[in-house]
Amino acid sequence: MATFAFQQVDVFTAVPTLGNPLAVVRDADTLSVAQMAAFARWTNLSETTFLLQPTAAEADYRVRIFTPTGELPFAGHPTLGSCHVWLTAGGQPQGAEIIQECGVGLVRIRRDGSRLAFAAPPLRRGGPADEAVIAQIAQGLHIDFSAIRGAEWIDNGPGWVGALLDSRAKVLALRPDYPALGDLKLGVIGPWDPIRDGDGVQYEVRAFVANSAKEDPVTGSLNAGLAQWLIGAAIAPDTYIASQGTALGRSGRIYVQREGAEIWVGGDTVPCITGTVTL
């Protein structure tokens, strides 16, 4: 057994306990895949990450991302949280941007004031969902087929499909039937009403992971895919703020901005636990 530096951080919030927690193990190069997977099962968080030496010359560090059930090639809140831990531990990027190496390749991250933001990676699968998938979504959400204003594959690694509803209220009212959703990883988004909901945020987002029968509090990869779809289709503005986690008692905030052909997804990260872990 060996001892490793460890942090648990809260991502997409400036207030601890209101975002999405992430466990991060530093200098984890000596750990086996089996040890990483076992620790991720033990933390039982949506993701646990391990910081490693990069294998690509351009990269500043490498990260492996595990859920309790397997490894992901990319995920958004682990990207921002892992980068925050790497920087606060003294990491120095080679250039103006931080370059993270992970399963999808190299991901660019920049400092945006107190926040970090990542450049959304290319979609592995895009395009409209077919009627059978939309019908499955409608059944799994207990809503009419016609209530879904659009549905697109927005898979940048985890396998997301997105669905657009016409209001925040309808998004928050959802009570998913996970068995009916099957193996879908479903993100649902709806606009805020400036009069009823306020004008500080533009969209409400929820994420349902059917095969684990749970809702994810705040999801960077999903918001990246949603932004690529909705901004690309001229449904959403080039810059907006999304809220996620409301239904779970969280208050996540995701800051989205298009610059040229790129979508940047940002948020705050705050530390909650700092210490060591023996593995």
What would you say this structure looks like, in words?
With 279 residues, the protein is α+β, with helices and mostly antiparallel strands. Helix content is 20%, strand content 37%. The chain contains six helices and 17 strands. The chain has helices at residues 33-43, 76-88, 131-141, 168-172, 178-181, 220-232, and strands at residues 3-11, 20-25, 48-52, 61-66, 71-72, 98-102, 105-112, 115-119, 150-153, 160-164, 185-191, 203-209, 214-216, 239-244, 252-259, 262-267, 269-278. The protein has a 17-stranded mixed β-sheet that branches. α2 (76-88) packs across α6. The longest helix has 13 residues, at 76-88. The mean pLDDT is 97.
Q: What is the gyration radius calculated from CA atoms? A: 18 Å
Query: For the terminal residues, how far apart are their CA atoms?
Result: 5 Å
Q: Are there runs of 5+ residues with pLDDT below 50, and where?
A: none
Structural class by SSE content? alpha+beta
- What series of H and E elements makes up the topology? EEHEEEHEEEHEEHHEEEHEEEE
> Helix tally?
6
Q: What is the residue-mean pLDDT, rounded to a whole number? A: 97
Helix content: 10-25%
Shape: globular
Largest sheet: 17 strands, mixed
Strand segment tally: 17
Strand proportion: 35-45%
